[in-house]
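Researcher: Sequence recovery benchmark, item below. Answer with residues only.
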């Protein structure tokens, strides 16, 4: 297991990496190319606002190999991408949230 920021990652499951402080212009292909320098990227998901469709400034990147994923985290955290310092770390497990009332 790889431990980072009090979260653990189980071997055999693609490593899910949080990437924050993105410019609103960063695309999934930009992140696939950037993280692809460290190993095989299985999935990239730039998070968009449901109402506007615009990026929220963060994304998740899944990498097949834990060692390559950890190297990407170590080397890309605080690295510059399009004039912004990236925040890169192991993604926290998703927690259930109560349903929101949309009046």
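Model:
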């Amino acid at each position: 297991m790889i431990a980072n920021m009090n979260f653990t990652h189980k071997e055999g499951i693609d490593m899910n990496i949080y990437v924050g402080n993105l410019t609103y212009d960063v695309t999934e292909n930009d992140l696939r190319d950037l993280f692809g320098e460290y190993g095989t990227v299985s999935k990239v998901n730039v998070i968009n606002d449901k109402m506007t469709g615009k990026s929220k400034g963060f994304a998740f990147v899944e990498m097949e190999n834990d060692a390559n994923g950890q190297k990407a985290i170590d080397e890309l955290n605080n690295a510059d991408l399009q004039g912004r310092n990236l925040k890169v770390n192991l993604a926290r497990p998703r927690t259930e949230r109560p349903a929101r009332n949309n009046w």
